[in-house]
Amino acid sequence: MSHKKFLAAFAIMSTGLIVFVSVIMYIIDPLFYFRKTNLYRPQFVAAERYQMPGLLKNQDYDTVFTATSMGRNFRESYANEKFGGKSFNASLPASTAKEQSMVAEAALRTKPDLKRVIWELNYYSFSGDPNWVSGPPSDFPTYMYDQSKINDIRYLFSSYSVEILKKNLMANKTGDERWREVESLYKFGQVAPVETTEHIQTFLSNVQPIGQLPDYEKSSTLIKSFKENVISLVQAHPKTKFTLFYAPYPIYNHVSFYKKNPSYLAERLKFKKEVYELSRKYPNVEIYDFQDMKEITFNFANYQGDTVHYYSYINNWIIDYLVQNKPVQSEQEYAGKLKNFKQQITNFNINQLKMESSIKERYALKQ
Amino acid sequence: MLFNSYIFILVFFPIVFAVYYLLLNLKNKNIAKIFLVAANLYFYSYWNVKYLPIILSSIAINFTLATLLNKIQGLHLKRTVLTIGILFNIGLLGYYKYYDFFMTNVNAVFGANISLLHLALPLAISFFTFQQIAYLVDTFREGTKEYTLLDYAFFVTFFPHLIAGPIVHHREIIDQLRDGSNYKMKSANIASGLYIFAIGLFKKVIIADTLAEWANLGYNNIGSLTLVDSWITTLAYTFQLYFDFSGYCDMAIGLGLFFNIKLPANFNSPYKSLDIQDFWRRWHITLGRFFTHYLYFPLGGNRKGNARTYFNLFVIMFVSGIWHGAGWTFVIWGILHGVASVIFRFWKTFNIRLPKLVAWFITFFFVHIAWVFFRSPDLTTVKVMLTKMFSLQSFHFPARMTAIINERFGTHFIPTTYYFDLKLILLFVVILAIVVFAKNSIERLKTFKPGYLTVAFISLLTVISLMYLNRVSEFLYFKF
């Protein structure tokens, strides 16, 4: 065999093998990306970012949630009951604005009649380049969210797809019934450590002040990403209602940033103000801001012991609030809320915190 | 960009390869060379464009100094220029790689508060610095008047060896650049290059990266390891390093061949070594060659008596340790190899031959233990890992065996679940057999003949590797 023939044979053989594997993977579709499978009972074991594109395509819904982990515990059945219609929660933990925007875009593309997008506005998500997506070890698979068909080869020809297929087949063989129900996927907090005042005190006393705020935390960076990721979709889909909300983080979480550097608060208030001013131009946008709602944010019984996340009943409470209350109605009203929020942080005293379980009990009874 | 990434394999390399050979059709071959140098610099800047001025100024200053050395007649002045050149290169390396380590220790010892630079280590600085020191020394010794700036820049930046070696001698590249027959496509070289690149890619992506998962798991969960687990962890790393480094070297050699440039072998089955001297002739061969020619010989080599020979041997191993990393774990790793080399040299004077198996076992065992220092992030980890490896307190029988022993002999051993699956031991036996008994890739390359079986073999290796490329990780030798 000549060297030239060797090279030609290599090209043919390796291309053939790649095509063969890809065709097999297209038929089996381990992440249920192209279609719902009839070949075997699905188990949704892949990481959220990889599992979500298929679910976005193949679930039945007219309302979609796009958020960070703060939105992960929205239960579709509860939302359906309260909102009417059908919802799908596509929240991704620690997701960036671009990722959330790609989720919303994928939903809008596959469901042209999508009525509502419920979108959590998280400072973290906007604190970077507008195109920022998460990197290794769990890279955001942009190729599964975009419109291009060509780059689907990265899904079809990937060791991860083989790994997931193997897990699925093993689950069916061993009768593993976990991760079968879409609604229960990725929900968390059932076994979270309980929050205590001692823990909050230690958390706040361990805050290390920083001299200067990084550029990516400034309102100019945040607002740039907001415009490119949120406003562009709002403009392109005037018939879809966009419900934007700021999640009720525990007040001590905001205080920790304030202690780190007071500019955090100033920049975030500026961001909120600008977001409101930009959004009010569009009739299909409404804003809810839960961050100054003292009955939630000062009650540490509502929070898991990680100084960040609330329990899942607060997600239900948010849904109820969206149903029962109007969004921010005027600039004046919002200015009042922001002022209130600022004072809560600057005048914070740990003795203001309370531990009171009435909301929890109310929602426990409902469930 | 990494050799084991889609961007390199599917975009950068095919474009550079195609454009280079297209440009070689022009009468002026320098245009193709200028393009390749530009591509090399792009490859280098892909990680961080901030590094680019460092390598560019290093090339410019070294070439200017060499031009001066070529022109100057007086020995004294030549020596001064050479000293300036070496100090510049060592200074650059010292500033970026060792300043913080040195100052941290000064602060600790003297209670000082000298601020640290916290500089990111410019990529490949350890490699291109050494190559250029060799170039200056050789210019001083024998002159390099015939070199052009373009050829020199090509030699320093040639992407197959740029990031992690081999540490190429300037003549090895420039002599090939001066050979006109290398400016045309040679299918034999491309086929050979493809063959060894595919083997290297598989070694890195499939074998080394899989072993890395176990090694990292073990080191990250060191508290949970039993004696057996600690050996599984450290063996995983010993083999990971082998396949990572040899895989990288294979890929570098393969890529060089695509451009008709033969890079020197850097790796020759080091775990087959029967003594520590043999190990260093097989592991990172070009680094050993550099130290021998530009440190060991100038220090007097073995020509100044036994004591001086031992000292010189120790020095090159010690410096090799520091070269690998600015940290005490690397310093001790270098000292261990230095002491082992001196002991072996002394042992050799008795002319006693150990049985091959014993000699192999002592060498492998020593190298393996020394890798614990090399891998551990700090000396505390070294201490914990070595204690786990050698303390019977960390030994537990597997759960099922404990039950049987307790029942039969009325003992009260506590059943323990091992951190790792013990089947891994079987896998390691297979890997050990491969690294000790199988022909290595350089030997295979020498006997490579195109055939259907070979093409099927490398197609399969390539396709499997491409499938696993999404487990992107850095080559271990990148940080050195």
UniProtKB/TrEMBL annotation, chain A:
Q: Which domain of life is it from?
A: Bacteria
Q: Transmembrane ranges?
A: 6-28
Keywords, alphabetical: Membrane, Transmembrane, Transmembrane helix
What is the protein's given name? Uncharacterized protein
* Species of origin: Neobacillus novalis
TrEMBL record, chain B:
What's a single GO MF annotation on this record?
A: acyltransferase activity
Pfam families (UniProt xref) = MBOAT (PF03062)
Which E.C. number(s) belong to this protein? 2.3.-.-
UniProt keyword list: Acyltransferase, Cell membrane, Membrane, Transferase, Transmembrane, Transmembrane helix
- According to the record, the segments passing through the membrane are 6-24, 53-69, 81-99, 119-137, 149-168, 188-206, 311-336, 357-374, 418-438, 450-469
Q: Which PANTHER family match?
A: ACYLTRANSFERASE, TEICHOIC ACID D-ALANYLTRANSFERASE
Family from the record: Belongs to the membrane-bound acyltransferase family.
Protein's name in the database: MBOAT family O-acyltransferase
Q: Which organism is it from?
A: Neobacillus novalis
